[in-house]
Amino acid sequence: MADSIRFAIVGFGNIGAGVVEVFSHNRAAINARLPRPLELVRLADKDLTTPRPVPVPPGVEFTDNVEKVVRGDDVDIVVELVGGLRPARQFVEAALKGGKHVVTANKALLADCGAELWALAAKHGVSLLFEASVGGGIPVIRALQQGLAANQLLSVRGILNGTCNFILSSMAATGAKFAEALEEAKRLGYAESDPTFDIEGYDTAHKIAILASLAFGQDVRFSDVYVEGITHIRAEDIASARETGHAVKLLAVARCDGPGEAVEVRVHPALVPLASALGRTDGVLNAIEIVGNAVGPVTLVGRGAGRGPTASAVLSDVMNIAQQMVDGGAPLDRRLKVPVGERNLRPMRETAVAHALQLSVLDREDTVATIQEALRAERVDVARVVERSRRPGEYFNLTIFTKRSSEARLQAALNRLAASQITVEPPTVFRVEESA
Amino acid sequence: MADSIRFAIVGFGNIGAGVVEVFSHNRAAINARLPRPLELVRLADKDLTTPRPVPVPPGVEFTDNVEKVVRGDDVDIVVELVGGLRPARQFVEAALKGGKHVVTANKALLADCGAELWALAAKHGVSLLFEASVGGGIPVIRALQQGLAANQLLSVRGILNGTCNFILSSMAATGAKFAEALEEAKRLGYAESDPTFDIEGYDTAHKIAILASLAFGQDVRFSDVYVEGITHIRAEDIASARETGHAVKLLAVARCDGPGEAVEVRVHPALVPLASALGRTDGVLNAIEIVGNAVGPVTLVGRGAGRGPTASAVLSDVMNIAQQMVDGGAPLDRRLKVPVGERNLRPMRETAVAHALQLSVLDREDTVATIQEALRAERVDVARVVERSRRPGEYFNLTIFTKRSSEARLQAALNRLAASQITVEPPTVFRVEESA
């Protein structure tokens, strides 16, 4: 096809196979929407021998010469699905420097050096698109860059890792321990054999770094994100949360209260209302809630991973570039990008967050007064107290919801509480994210 | 500002006021994202005297000479917020013919003659954007046109009218009658004094016509949509639905089972699972679930109406046009449009839908056999039967869920059932839309 738009895929693993599969299957529909047809000309992977879930399509070259593919002159668009920092960065840079547009699903790369890569793309007059990097097939990048562009965004909060959400949902549904739910996730193919990247929150942190950059126009990187994983969550903590109407979710939060205010970016388990969109997002689904000052809250829900959803996002980006190539005009990065303002990030120790203290305390006359005193002494304000269960004269279980306070103050209050010797066991502390 | 991009608003009512307000408030943030600043130069309305919720900003001309605004050479973008068919169509046509880009929130206009207007825009090399026409600030148009572009879409289903959803949610929550819930909606400003357009489903039908056109690449108009409103819904029907785990929603459905298959487009009350994203969307919220063959289901939820959300969508469109004007390239219509394929729409009488029959029947030995016979005689297959309550020896209440069958067959089965004289009162029949 003389006037086709040619693309190549670097990295023929699971996601690469998905892109091949969806492109083959939807080719007629895709090309009907484009002014010139798309053609997959080359697949590159350093490993040519491992069996793939889909065959190499007829007419497509399959090569282990990745360098040639990213530097060659016979492709217009390079799809980078290698993942990780090295050698993916070198591949992306080589392609951009060679004047090729790049589509990537690589969240780690963008959260590590996205600003440098976008600058490189701009310098060479090409596009670097990345819808697949966050939320699988959910078109959240486009929503932030285009559909909600007229808003001052106040917050982006999301459930961005299907593995963690499956584990927490499964613990909530069955009362299973973390380790048991993790094993089940592995068995069902929802967790890697080494699940560290997911369960420690790193995957989520990469994604929220990208979303925060777009939402607040700052260069937010993985290393800027406060991260706490879910390995310490116990089934009984989740049950206690349910008693107060909350679910436990690994939440990514990026927030900015207004122009000139600092941006906070954090990933940690949090209580969210069971009746909220985030609280109801169970299993491997992802959900992203964006709050804009004009639009209010908008929530996007869908499959956040997997071959089909990721391929949907990758190929939609490829189509966008193909349209732009034919129609002319500036590269899409220029069109889409947000200004990278001065960095103004709030460290976690200065971030005020609402907390829930799940306490098991002695049932004495002075118990409530003692707790209140410990909190008041550190100026931690109480929003409400929920008694969950009681064995009169022995102990009772309650959850204290605090208003927003700094982590430092809360820790000091907890120390006072420990010293008072009224707690039967160490308190479980969750951050709380209420409905927008 | 010599090199600003100038826009004018035609129609200074509630939504126009919202656009003025959000633009004034977010101007710095909006212009920081644009290569050249946006400037509101003119507001036009035939009525200059009615007090507005926001003042005319300093430096903005307020005129009743609408013709001059849509034809004048000193604006680049015309925002049409007049609504309705006439004179809005004339205004839009005049602006497009004069080489001005147009942004509109006018669903009625697009569902009536969108194809003609898009063609006119293309002919004159300008853009006609309409994100605000469906789902308020929810960026669903962009999702269909760009983010999910690589999918073959299978269905688009939505709760697209906040008035109806408020009424139905309120009836479900309080057991109020339709008329009572409508009165409450009026009192709270969620329903017009003449609510016909909303409660008869016409507003929803306009919106699904637009979504179906984009999703399936066909020229679907309001007049193609099967429409049934909510005025006949009774609180007891909603209570019966809840007993089987369903909510009653006014649902817009556009569906196509695959390439070459006919497209069905319909608006009617439907049972949806209480536990689904659609079933959980209460109050004035809108929700749109899009199912693509690669991405699976993606659901977008947010405020579907009101000044802020609509202004968010309108101004995001204006920003998109401003970026394109500076960056060059083909108009966004070209870039965004889907091919208008041959029309292949399935009439409602040929559409197979699953149904729920809420029955109150005599408690006789032959009751179940009689019902099954009536259905079987018309080849209506039963999916499941749920007994809701029973007064032994007198009557019992049950819901029969059928598999998909044509409306004609179902009606014939209902006629047989009526003739059998086992029903205590006329059955309530709902269409059923299960989770994707």
Features:
homodimer; alpha/beta; eleven-stranded mixed sheet; six-stranded parallel sheet
Give an overview in words:
- With 436 residues, chain A is α/β, with parallel strands linked by helices.
- Chain A is 37% helix and 25% strand.
- Chain A contains 14 helices and 17 strands.
- In chain A, strands 7, 8, 9, 10, 11, 12, 13, 14, 15, 16 and 17 form an 11-stranded mixed sheet that branches. Chain A has a 6-stranded parallel sheet with strand order 3-2-1-4-5-6, sandwiched between helices.
- In chain A, helix 1 (14-32) links the parallel strand 1 and strand 2 (38-44).
- The longest helix of chain A is centred in the last third of the chain and has 21 residues, at 307-327.
- The first copy, chain A, is elongated, with a radius of gyration of 24 Å.
- The interface between A and B is large, with 65 and 65 residues.
- Strand 12 of chain A pairs antiparallel with strand 12 of chain B.
- Class computed from helices, strands and strand pairing of chain A: alpha/beta
What is the number of strand segments of chain A? 17
Greatest interface by residues involved = A-B, 65 and 65 residues
- Uncertain spans of chain A, ≥5 residues at pLDDT below 50? none
Strand % of chain A is 25-35%
Q: Which term fits the overall shape of chain A?
A: elongated
Largest sheet of chain A, in brief, is:
11 strands, mixed
The multimeric state of the shown protein is homodimer
Portion in helices of chain A: 25-40%
Give the CA-CA distance, first to last residue of chain A: 51 Å
- Report the average pLDDT across residues of chain A: 93
Global Rg of chain A: 24 Å
Number of helices of chain A: 14
